[in-house]
Design a protein that fits this description.
The active site is at residue 60. Keywords: Lyase. Catalyzes the formation of methylglyoxal from dihydroxyacetone phosphate. The chain has 6 helices and 5 strands; from the N terminus they run βααβαβαβαβα. With 137 residues, it is an alpha/beta fold. It has a single domain (2-126), classed as 3-Layer(aba) Sandwich (Rossmann fold), CATH 3.40.50.1380. It has a 5-stranded parallel β-sheet, sandwiched between helices. Helix 5 (88-100) links the parallel strand 4 (74-78) and strand 5. Helix 1 (12-21) packs across helix 3. The radius of gyration is 14 Å and the shape is globular. 1,3-dihydroxyacetonephosphate (13P) binds next to helix 3 and helix 4.
């Protein structure tokens, strides 16, 4: 599966800890991330991560483009609900595209825990069906 990892600044430590705890699972998948998040996680875990621009510079939009192209199966986005972001429209656009394309997205660690459990037990097999990620309308 192709998994995107994103965290706002005050949530980065949580995501680094999460990625460290589940390193053995993430190691079996292809990982993508916004710039600073990807740097922090790869430094902490030595996982191989394809990094895009930092979020405020367009990284959320780059990951959104992958969602639109059917190239992401799961998005783990630890958002900061207590701090306004200058690139809020980009964030909304990424979440919207996940909804458009039925891509599972966790915006907090609790949901991420559930989705990771699903990743282990085959709940993501639906992503292998041709109907997902190949919409043209
Ligand atoms: O701002 C972000 C997501 O909206 C994350 O970007 P960075 O990983 O570059 O900090």
């Amino acid at each position: 599966m192709n998994i995107a990892l994103i965290a706002h600044d005050r949530k980065k430590e949580d995501l680094v800890n999460f990625a460290t705890a589940y390193r053995h699972i993430f190691a079996d998948h292809s990982l993508f991330a916004t710039g600073t998040t990807g740097k922090r996680i790869s430094e902490a875990t030595a996982l191989s991560i394809t990094r895009f621009l930092s979020g405020p510079m367009g990284g959320d939009q780059q990951l959104g483009a992958l969602v639109a192209e059917g190239k992401l199966d799961l998005v783990l986005f630890f958002r900061d609900p207590l701090q306004a972001q200058p690139h809020e429209p980009d964030i909304s656009a990424l979440i919207r595209l996940c909804d458009v394309h039925d891509v599972p997205i966790a915006t907090n660690m609790g949901t991420a825990e559930v989705l990771l459990a699903g990743l282990k037990n085959g709940a993501f097999d639906f992503r292998k069906k041709e109907t997902y990620g190949s919409r043209e309308e």
